Amino acid sequence: MDKLTARAILSDCNINVAQDFFTLSSAQVECLLDHADTHKYRKPKNANGSRGRYFHAYVQRKARGDAQDVHDALNK
Asked: What residue numbers bound the domain in which 41 lies?
């Protein structure tokens, strides 16, 4: 997933970049889960939390373009 796709998902779900997961409405979480299904997202096997929370964190990281993502892209 690239930065533009992540921002489009957040926009479609009416979520601001860097918005905390626990402040989302149930409709926003449902929207995120619909996108997670579309992208066939699976949370890590040993995850301590919901799939929605992990997908939210993943999309937020991609939308912000965190340094680790830049590092990973450079080392492909």
From this structure: 3-74
